[in-house]
Target: LexA repressor
Amino acid sequence: MTSLPPLTKKQREVLNFIEQFVQENGYTPSYREIAKGLGLSSPSTVYEHVQALCEKGVINTGDDGCARTIELVESEELSPMSIMLPLAGLITAGEPIEAVEENEAMAIPANFVVDAENSYVLQVKGRSMIEDGIFDGDFVIIERNPSPRNGDIVVALLDNQYATLKRFYREANHIRLQPANSTMQPIIIKGDLNIQGIVRAVIRKFSH
Model:
């Protein structure tokens, strides 16, 4: 481990907030939560501080140089490394809803992510996956993968605009998207289906 380079008061506050947030909640905050917690004007202000931390070598970004995939460098003053992934919006675990992108990001533990460049986060809305332990309000880490195996939990895009979260099964002459809720019926797809990715991890935020 190495020591942190000199930081401004606000940069130190951003890092301290993330550290304290993790200790209290067990997960890392989004840009919006950092902004709210520090009384900053918007998530874009947090982005500016993150960029400054990048320039000081505290944070490593992806090859594109932007703060969409961020790796916090371990030091004597930081908790285990985290990665910032795009928070792409809501995903339904019930009736399909229109896919939305929010252009925000969320920091998560690095050991939750296999392929950061091809991963993103969605927030779950609905109860169709509760028997698999995925509840309304949870966050799911998605890895882009157009070729899921039977039994994988996938993000499926219906009619190229409505996203849903279900278990994937390719059967004789159709694809079955199976909810994990015994009160709900599967979605049967005859023809092509756009698979956006597979679920790699679930993050639950507990309210105080």
